[in-house]
TrEMBL record:
Signal peptide: none annotated. Residues 10-148 form the Transposase IS200-like domain. This is Transposase. Transmembrane segments: none annotated. SUPFAM superfamilies: Transposase IS200-like (SSF143422). The lineage of its organism: Bacteria, Pseudomonadati, Bacteroidota, Flavobacteriia, Flavobacteriales. NCBIfam families: REP_Tyr_transpos. InterPro entries: RAYT_transposase, Transposase_17, Transposase_17_sf. Pfam families: Y1_Tnp.
Amino acid sequence: MSTKYKATTTEDAYFITITTMGWVDVFTRLNQKQIIIQALHYCQDQKGLEIYGYCIMHSHIHLLCKATNGFILSDVVRDFKKYTSKKIIQTIIEEPESRREWMLDYFKKACEHIKQEQQYKVWQNGYHAEHIYSNKFIKQKIDYIHNNPVNEKVVTMSEDYYFSSARNYAGLENELDVILLDLF
């Protein structure tokens, strides 16, 4: 298996993207975004995850982060995806969702080819980890993360998107604490 886009070292920062199967727009609902925020809080508190930048888009999540205190980022991401998959499916089933039948059917079919027994597959395999190697690269990735909602025309200014660390960097109310970097 290739390690090109995997977080194989400890204590190093990575830019990662976690994407839903088929780029399904799961995170158009507030309750689904809250699942992601709560899971990221848990990873920060219990799994040594340091987050420097993030954005929850409709079908994917961008993070600039690293695992600390002996944790390995690939393990943290694996556990995050496993937990949030179950919570996302539970929320689709139990809470109002006009796309319930379609989404459940899609996520069920997404795992038909998997050898291990699994009822639903919410996340694509992998997380496209890119090792952070310079301050220029950090700035580029933070700009990319923060401008993602602007480029998708969800908002006109990055700090207006509530589920992004652009709000942290602008000193505004936010849902998730991040470690602010000096972006020169």
